[in-house]
Amino acid sequence: MQKLLIVGCGDIARRLLPRLLGHYRVFTLVRDPEQLAFWRGQGSIPILADLDRPGTLKRIAGLADVIIHLAPPAARQAGRQVGRRDIRTRYLLAALASGLSLPQRLVYISTSGVYGDCAGARVDETRSPSPATVRACRRLDAERQLRAFGRRSGVVVSILRAPGIYAADRLPIERLRRGVAALCKADDVYTNHIHADDLARVTHAALRYGRSNRSYNASDDSEIRMGDYFDLVADRLGLPRAPRLSRNEAKASLSPMQWSFMSESRRLANQRIKRELRVTLRYPRVEDGVAAALHERKHQCS
Question: C-alpha angle 147/204/279, rounded to 5°?
């Protein structure tokens, strides 16, 4: 049985783990000692290590045949801003390269933000990245590091570019309750989505079918604008709809972080995950996924 290491143990790892157990001997890289019991109880073998402390990564060198890299880049390192580089991925690859054996395959979840603003155009994986935010630049840096590692070492590296991930606990409910605004229809941007369960499904498929040095848009089929998405969630929950602002009004009143999400528009083409990864999405439309997420949320609260 092959050994598989999950790096970045959050929600997607939790949803992915049941698909892996029984097919792999699964190790999970855990940075918080208090989480060791949880991941052990889920059926994995937790390893206490921290991507921000490279000395702790020696224990993963040569450990696994397959790596699933879910860890986001750090915004700060040793109290300092790290800028446009992903230091965590650099430390991870250095640890992997130091082992007596290398993994055969590595799957990385990146972000569709690497494309930047595409003015509402339909975007497939052949489009050149042009990230507009420092966060997206760090993700693109990670992609490039991983591609170079794959070319040097012969490791099959597959990159999943995920858009907005949603689930029962990842809906914009608090934003709606706070009255956070959306753009008016004339200025609104296209936004892309993937249910967390479907992202786990795509990640699992990439382990089997992902091609070497290949990127995939891990997105659903929806073409929906951001304000309409907010309206969808608000209407399903009986909340007031988000107020609509013009582009100039939004830029003047929103925080730089909020504005960054409203200043990019693109429609992701996802044929590659269907054709090459053979994925059938459980929630191909965001309307279906939101309904399922709200049903799950109601069940959790009952």
Answer: 100
Q: Are 73 and 82 in contact (CB under 8 A)?
A: yes
Residue the block writes with tokens 């089929």: 221
Structure tokens at 250: 């939004």
Residues 6+ apart with CB under 8 A from 18: none
3-state SS class at 74 = coil
Helices (H), the chain: 11-20, 36-41, 87-97, 134-153, 173-177, 196-209, 226-237, 247-253, 256-262, 271-275, 286-301
Residue-wise pLDDT for 161-177, tens only, equals: 999 999 999 999 998 99
User: Could you tell me the sign of the dihedral formed by the alpha carbons of 87, 93, 95, 98, in that order?
Assistant: negative
pTM of the model: 0.94
Helix, strand, coil percent content, the chain, rounded in steps of 5: 40, 20, 40
Residue 116 and residue 264 in contact, taking contact as beta carbons nearer than 8 Å: yes
- Three-state SS for 117? coil
pLDDT of residue 299: 65
122 — phi, psi (to 5°)? -75, 130
Please provide residue 133's backbone torsions phi and psi, each rounded to the nearest 5 degrees: -120, 155
- Please state, in angstroms and rounded to a whole number, the distance separating the CA atoms of residues 239 and 176: 7
- Per-residue pLDDT averaged across 290-299, rounded? 82
Rounded CA separation 8/86 (Å): 14
Q: Which residue has the higher pLDDT, 30 or 299?
A: 30
- Domains in the chain, start-ordered, CATH in brackets? 3-169+194-221+267-288 (3.40.50.720)
pLDDT-above-70 percentage for the chain: 96
